[in-house]
Each structure stands twice: as C-alpha cells, then as structure tokens.
Amino acid sequence: MQILVLTKPVPDPAAGAERLSGPDFRLDRSASPTVVNGNDEYALEAALQLVEAHGGEVAILVMAPANATETMRKALAMGAQRGVLVTDPALAGADLPATVRVLAAAAAAETFDLLLTGLDTSDGTGGAVAAGIAARLGLPLLSAAAHIEPDPAAGRVRVKRLSAKGYDLIEAPMPAVISCTQALGAPRYPSLKGIMAARQREIAVRSLADLGNPDDGPLLPDGGWATRVVAADPPPARDTGRVVKAPAADAAREIADFLADRRLI
Amino acid sequence: MAPRFVAVAEVADGALTRLSTEVATLARTLAEASGGTAVGLVVDADPAPAAAELAGFMAQVIAVSAPATANEAWAPHAAAEVGRLIDDGATHVLAGASTDGRDLAGMVVGRWTWGLLANATAVTWGGDGLVAEATVLGGKAITRSAFTGAAGVVTVRPNATTAEPAAAAGSVEPRAAAAGAGASSVAVLDRVAEAGAEASLEEARIVVVGGRGVGSPEGFAVVTELASLLGGVVGATRASVDAGWIPYARQIGQTGKVVKPSLYLGLGVSGAMQHRVGMQSAEAIVIVNRDPDAPIAEIADLFVVGDLFEVGPALVAELRSRRGS
Ligand SMILES: Cc1cc2nc3c(=O)[nH]c(=O)nc-3n(C[C@H](O)[C@H](O)[C@H](O)COP(=O)(O)OP(=O)(O)OC[C@H]3O[C@@H](n4cnc5c(N)ncnc54)[C@H](O)[C@@H]3O)c2cc1C
Ligand SMILES: Nc1ncnc2c1ncn2[C@@H]1O[C@H](COP(=O)(O)O)[C@@H](O)[C@H]1O
C-alpha cells in the first residue's frame, strides 16, 4: 500500500508564543518553534502501522515555507520514507481554497491508495482540507477516523468514523481520503536509528511552477485571497477569581451560592 | 446583487439538531440585516419533520428527499444540493461546525473555490459584508474576518447565537435529490451508539469535567452525579481519556471538543494549555483542585482548594438539600 500523509508544520501550541502580526494579521511563523500538527501525528502513526501490516510505503506531503524541511525530518524519523514539500513565496498567507488546490495538485502527482490528513490543525482552517481535496480529486472522504482497516485485495477500506453518539462503520473504494483523530492511538517517538535514517531520506521540493496549471484554471486566485482578517484582539480579560480554602461542607456551600447567584441552579 | 444565505441543517433521530436552529437563526438575521434572503436546506431520507421544524425559523425551506443518505455518507449528497442552490444564486453557505458540517464546507470549498470562515463564534453583517468572529491560536486572539468577494462558506460553532423562532412560520418546498448526486459515495454499514457518548458536549449549558485527579473509572461517579444533579453533561481531559476511564467523545481541548457552556465545573483538572483551548470561553469556571498553584487557577472564577473526593460529595449533598430531596 502507498500512503500519503499530510503533515502540516504548526507553531508549537505548548510554547504558547504564537502571534498574529502586520496589517493583515498573519500568523507570525517565526515567533515560535514549529512542530508537526498534533492530529497529523495520529495520521502518520496510523499510516506507519498500516504499512507494517500490509507492506508498502508512507510518504509525507507538506505545503509550507522552505525551512519546513526541519520539522519534516521529525516525521521522517518516525518512519515515513520520503517527503514532498511544496513551497513558494506566492503561497505566503494562502487561504483555504488555494491550500486545497495546491495540495490536491501535489497529491495528484503521487500514486497513493490512501491519503491521510489530521482532523484539523491547531493554527488552521477548521478541518476542511481533507474534504476539499476529496472533492477536487473526486475521491471518497472518510472523516474523523478512529480505526482504519484496508482490504488491499478488494481495493476497499473500512473506517470507524466518530459520530455524536459513538461511531459509524463506513466503507469506500480506494484510493480514498481519510481524516484522522487521536482515537487512532498515540504516535511513536522517533528512535535514534530513525533519526539517523531520516537525515538520508529524500525531501522533494516543488514550486508552484513545478505543479503546473490544472485544466480548470490557475492554482492561485488572481484577485487575492478569498478571506481576510480585519481585526484581531486579545480575549476579554476575566475578572480575577475567588479562591476558597475551607472545610468541604463550607466549600460546597460557597459553590452552591455561586451557582445560585448566576441562576445555574 | 442582494446576498442569499443558505442555512444547511442537520438531522439527528429525525429532528433538527440544536446547532441547526442556531445556524438558521443566524442566516435569517443576516438576510434581514443585509436586505437579502435566506433559505433553509434539509437533505435527508425523510426530511419532512425536520423541514417543518426549520420552517419555524426561516421563511423558505427546501426539503430534499435523499433516500441514499440512509446508508451513504451525508456530506457529498448535501454538497450536491448546496451546488444546486449556488447555481440558483446563493452567495453564502452557513453550516454547523460539526463533523458533517465541516465535511460539507470543505467539499463546497473544493468544488467552487469559495473562501471559508471556520468555527465562527459570532456572525454579523457589517456594512458591506459578512463578518465572522473566531477564537484562534488556543484562545490567544479573537479575530474578525470577512470574505474579499461576494460569496463564501461559514462553519458556525454551537452557542454562536441563541436560536429564536421567526415571527411567522415559513413554507417548505419538497424536492427530489439531484440525479447522480454524491457520486463518490461512502457506504454507511452500521451506526453504533456507545455508552457515555450520547449527550452533546458542545451544546451543553453545563459541563462537569473529571481530570486525572478522579483517579479511576469509579472516581468518575462523583463527576457523573454532579452532572446529573446540575442537568449538565460530563466532559474529560485527555489524561482521563488516555487512562481509559471515559470515551474520547468526552474529551475537551485542542484535539477534542471546544465547549462554551454557561458553567464549566472541573474536578481534578490542572488546566494545561491544550485543555484550556477547549473551555476557556466558558461563562463561569468553577474548579476543585487540591493544588492551589494549578494553572487553571488563572482563569477560574471560583477556585476551591480541596480534595475532590471530599468537596464533590459535599456539593452533591448541598445541591440535594437545596432542592429539597
Ligand atoms: C498534541 C497534544 C494535544 C493535546 N490535546 C489535549 C486535549 O484536547 N485535551 C486535554 O485535556 N489535554 C490535551 N493534551 C494533554 C494536556 O497537555 C494535559 O496533559 C492534560 O490536559 C492534563 O489533564 P489533567 O488536567 O486531567 O491531568 P493533570 O495535569 O495530571 O492534572 C490533574 C490535577 O488534578 C489534581 N488532583 C489530583 N488528585 C486530586 C484530588 N483528589 N482532589 C482534587 N484535585 C486533585 C492535581 O492537583 C492536578 O492539578 C494534549 C497534549 C498534546 C501534547
Ligand atoms: N499546509 C499544509 N500542508 C500539509 N498538510 C496540510 C496543510 N494544511 C492542512 N493540511 C492537512 O489538512 C488537515 C486539516 O487542516 P485544516 O483544514 O487546516 O484544519 C491537517 O490536519 C493536515 O493533515
């Protein structure tokens, strides 16, 4: 099986240093250290386990600034065999439709049975990239995966899709696009051997020109991005809270009073 | 050209979801503010009951009978029907920021190259266009964003507005599903309900959360009991999900659900950044933690320093005695 995993480099949420800057409130990607998006690590882990079980190769695909190769090495150290980085100055601040078109064009240039993404990104557009790519490439979308079970002989894949009530068991022909959740299981840590091996692995760097022009028009809009941020403010400050240190019964009464004041009981 | 808003509704157990009533209310309000029109869309194997409900919120509702959605993924079919409305002049598509709503939104973006404003916590019409508010970067900033053109897709978070019925009920136009719609369909073989995953965390007014401090599956009993006494829903941190005490569907945070309840009551929760991202816009935050230096103290309105196995049962008793039972 050939599996292509989309692993977006994002500012490390744990570092807490993200900021929006400039007149158009773009994410300042130099302000904090970069990591592989948390949900994408679950996708990558699932992909690695699938090729361990069924054979094949895992490749990663990223659209990001040129220095993203550094973060991509971490994914390669986990066990991905090679990487593709689409990078181009014209992509700075790209909106969702452009991201979808570019990633879909780059994916179309690869051979894959499964294209895996994270459910959503910590800095991103809210979990719409997988569906966008599926729609553009005319592939089935299996979203919010908690378990992935391909049947390579039959050319089909089954997914447990998280639902509001539990899960749906869904199935589609491959190639297919799957968005992945934490329920797939914790990602492995790269081994020392993996880290060494990652240094030798190929990262193919592509520009927009390398991707060419799809039949239905250019990859990027000619009239600027489809959305813009008009204002960004810090969240309203919370009033300083009250701290209660008292015997349990008194503390319970304080909580109940607090709830009653706010008409919550 | 006057804008035309589509509110895409979702159906659960034959009824409209609460989030859909909020999306419908927003679409109607936007139409009024912009001098445009709004239409509600229900795509379901049996759309009539939900469509009738939706007509309580909007002047015009289209009920698409799509038998295939009984055993195929919903989003491709819904996207095809949205496409028909776009062909007829719809300019803005509003959907819930649910799993299905996001799938639909992504498909519309992929097919029509429209922009997306995701996870809106408020949507207004500001002078010459739609403005969507969203909390980004783990709660560090609240942005207001607009479309640069005359069309776009918005996904709406629960509680972005209060659902309000329209003054007069609207009309429902039944339709057959477009032929060949949703061609690359995904088969749904089974829908499985899991214990502990029923109530919607994102829509809940009160959320009671158990963190690692509850210590065991049995430890969750006090959390569950408080939730039921308060008419709330149980939530969890990743630590308690990873420990296997409660299903992933209950997780709040960066890789879980984002909640905005009137009350967040947390027991044995430290308040890691990845958890706060999912709950810090709660209106009131009450915490019981034995460590006064737990980071969640920074955002708590009431922070009780104490053992949850003492304060929790005491609160159960207090609530019981106040309601006289
Ligand atoms: C990529 C990534 C994504 C993540 N996503 C999420 C996410 O979506 N949601 C999430 O929640 N976390 C997430 N995390 C994990 C997060 O960093 C924290 O580890 C987690 O939130 C901690 O959960 P906790 O507060 O329950 O546990 P802890 O941090 O261990 O805190 C337990 C607290 O309970 C208190 N306590 C213990 N016993 C008692 C008692 N008897 N009475 C009172 N208080 C007691 C302790 O003082 C402590 O403050 C993520 C991490 C990563 C790396
Ligand atoms: N620039 C990117 N490069 C690689 N993958 C991406 C990129 N943007 C989004 N993705 C993938 O799409 C998923 C959903 O992203 P989003 O819709 O932005 O929340 C992510 O988890 C990634 O797997």
What's the quick description here?
Chain A is of the alpha/beta class. Chain A is built from seven helices and 15 strands.
Describe this protein's structure.
The complex is a heterodimer of chains A (265) and B (325). Chain A is an alpha/beta fold. Helix content of chain A is 29%, strand content 29%. Chain A has seven helices and 15 strands. In chain A, strand 10 (156-162) and strand 11 (166-173) form a beta hairpin. In chain A, helix 2 crosses helix 5. In chain B, helix 3 packs across helix 4 (99-112). By secondary structure, chain B is α/β, with parallel strands linked by helices. In chain B, 58% of the residues are buried. The radius of gyration of chain B is 21 Å and the shape is elongated. Chain B has a seven-stranded parallel sheet with strand order 7-11-6-1-4-5-12, sandwiched between helices. A five-stranded parallel sheet of chain B has the order 15-14-16-17-18. Chain B has eight helices and 18 strands. Chains A and B meet through helix 3, helix 4, strand 9, strand 10 and strand 11 of A and helix 3, helix 4, strand 7, strand 9 and strand 10 of B. Bound molecules: flavin-adenine dinucleotide and adenosine monophosphate (AMP). Adenosine monophosphate binds next to helix 1, strand 6, strand 8 and helix 4 of chain A.
Question: How are the elements arranged and paired?
Answer:
The complex is a heterodimer of chains A (265) and B (325).
Chain A: E1 2-6, E2 9-11, E3 20-21, E4 26-27, E5 34-36, H1 38-54, E6 57-63, H2 69-78, E7 82-86, H3 96-108, E8 114-118, H4 129-137, E9 141-151, E10 156-162, E11 166-173, E12 176-180, H5 192-200, E13 203-206, H6 208-211, E14 227-233, E15 242-244, H7 248-261
Parallel strand pairs in A: 1-6, 1-8, 6-7, 7-13, 8-12, 9-12
Antiparallel strand pairs in A: 2-5, 3-4, 9-10, 10-11
Helix pairs in contact in A: 2-5, 3-4
Chain B: E1 4-8, E2 11-12, E3 15-16, H1 18-34, E4 37-44, H2 48-54, E5 60-65, H3 74-87, E6 92-96, H4 99-112, E7 116-120, E8 122-125, E9 130-136, E10 141-147, E11 152-156, E12 171-176, E13 187-193, E14 206-210, H5 220-230, E15 233-236, H6 238-242, E16 263-267, H7 273-276, E17 284-289, E18 302-305, H8 308-322
Parallel strand pairs in B: 1-4, 1-6, 4-5, 5-12, 6-11, 7-11, 14-15, 14-16, 16-17, 17-18
Antiparallel strand pairs in B: 2-3, 8-9, 9-10
Helix pairs in contact in B: 3-4, 5-8
Adenosine monophosphate binds next to α1, β6, β8 and α4 of chain A.
